[in-house]
Structures are given as C-alpha cells and as structure tokens.
Specification:
By secondary structure, the protein is an alpha/beta fold. It has a single domain, classed as Ribokinase (UDP-N-acetylmuramoyl-L-alanine:D-glutamate ligase). The protein is 49% helix and 14% strand. The chain has a nine-stranded mixed β-sheet, sandwiched between helices. Helix 2 links the parallel strand 1 and strand 2. The model has no long low-confidence stretch (mean pLDDT 94).
Length: 265
C-alpha cells in the first residue's frame, strides 16, 4: 500500500481538472470541497458538450442523484467519451435501487466500465442486483452486508468498489482495505458523500485506482475528524471541514490514516 500522504501530494501537484455530472443539491458544496482539497472542478452536463469536455478533462465523476432523461443521456455520452479517451471515471449510483429508471440507468452506465464505483451499502447491493433495503439516497444496510456484493461487482467490472459508511470498505476483487477515518457529524452535511466521489476522481488521475481510492477516503475522513475538534454543530462543521481539507498536511495524513489491508474472503 502506497503512502496515503504521498497520494494527496501527487494529486495536488497535478491539480486535475475533474468534470462532474452531479445533482443539483451537491454542485456548490462539491465544487468548494474539490477546490479546498486541491483539484479543479467543472460542472459540465449539457448533452451538446459533455463528450467533448470529457476528452479534455483529467477525470469524470457521475452522480445520478437528481437524474432526468436528458441528464441520463449526458451521463452515458460522457462516460463513453471518457472511456474512449483513456480517462478515469467514477460512478456514484445514488438511490440506484429506488426506481426502474435508476436501475436501468445504473446497468447502462456499468457497460462503460467505471474506474471506481462509490456508494453506500444499499446502493452497492442494488447495483449488483442483490436485495437492498435503502430508503431513497440513505443506506438501510450495514457496510458489512455489501462486502460480498462489492467483491463480485469489482471482479465483474474490473474496477474498484468503495462501500462508504462508518468504516469504509474498498476492494478491487483481489485486494481489500477498510478505512476507519471519519466522524459522525459528516452525514449531517448535505452532499458531503457526493463531494467525496469527485475527490476520488481527482485522486485516481495518474495514480493506481485502488491505492488512490483508499487515500482519498482516508483524506476525507481525517478532514472530518479535524473539523469536529472545533465545530459546534453542522453549520460550523461544514466551514471547518473545508478549512481542514485545505490545510491537511500530507505527512499528517500518512501518520493519522487508519487503513487496514486484508485478504479477500
């Protein structure tokens, strides 16, 4: 496992341009989070330009949170273009099991072979075709319940799958890691999970996807821990979180990253 702080340092040196097709709720929060951590976000979703922009950007993230018909078309066009251009892309299958429209879109997006899939346990279960108990965008399944589905999905897609929760689980089908960084206040902030998808996309640019995903999760979680030291509630936490991401020292990340590697079951 490579040095988590070194992965942060390399990402910041490149300041990758990440195209994000994300939901309306997440756009502003996500852009600020990505700028704070050291990436360059672009919220480009128009059908007329998504494919062209995907070939320009360093990476792509797709979040289906507030998807509509035209946005679904844009997502597929962008994913196809990113894949053709050799750019990494990250899929966030928000509430993918909630409706037939979302299930069908999730299946179509998988045909474009994402580099990383990041979701909560219920989303990963639903995307893999298993029974899930999600309620909208919220997970109703524990991370452990989705580990087998994550392994199977990673192997089938030849990608990295990250199941995020109190303890994050990451697998590429051959290797596994659990990341224990984070704080209970983080789910209280709208769109932090969506923002994490863009941060992962920034980290995987020119870095090994498994190691980069683990480092992104540790970085994000540690920023939450640091923010909680001074925050009085969700409002002050959000401000402190942005500051913590901006100020995070790579050496501190290496020292405080709580990463456990394991052999797949």
């Amino acid at each position: 496992m490579q040095d988590t702080g070194k992965a942060l340092e390399r990402m910041r040196e490149g300041a990758p341009l990440v195209q994000n097709i994300t939901n309306f709720v997440a756009m502003n929060v996500m852009a600020n989070v990505m700028l704070a951590v050291g990436a360059s976000p672009a919220m480009v979703h128009a059908e007329e330009e998504v494919a062209e922009f995907a070939a320009i950007a360093s990476a792509l993230s797709i979040n289906i949170g507030t998807v509509s018909g035209p946005w679904a078309t844009s997502m597929e066009l962008a994913a196809q273009a990113a894949r053709a251009a050799g750019r990494p892309w990250v899929l966030d299958p928000v509430a993918v099991g909630a409706t037939a429209f979302r299930r069908d879109l999730g299946a179509r997006l998988l045909t474009h072979r994402p580099t990383v899939i990041r979701g909560n346990a219920s989303e990963i279960l639903a995307l893999s075709g298993a029974e899930a108990a999600g309620k909208g965008a919220d997970a109703a399944d524990p991370v452990a319940a989705a580990e087998a589905a994550a392994r199977a999905l990673a192997r089938a897609q030849s990608c990295v799958v990250a199941v995020t929760g109190p303890v994050d689980f990451v697998t590429d089908g051959q290797r596994e890691a659990r990341v224990r960084n984070g704080h209970a206040m983080m789910p209280r902030i709208t769109a932090l999970g969506c923002s994490l998808t863009g941060v992962i996309a920034a980290f995987v640019v020119d870095q090994p996807p498994f190691e980069a995903t683990v480092a992104a999760l540790a970085c994000f979680g540690l920023a939450g821990e640091i923010a909680a030291e001074t925050a009085r509630g969700p409002g002050s936490f959000q401000v402190a979180f942005l500051d913590a991401l901006y100020d995070l020292d790579p050496q501190v990340l290496t020292a405080r990253a709580q990463v456990e590697l394991a052999v797949p079951a």
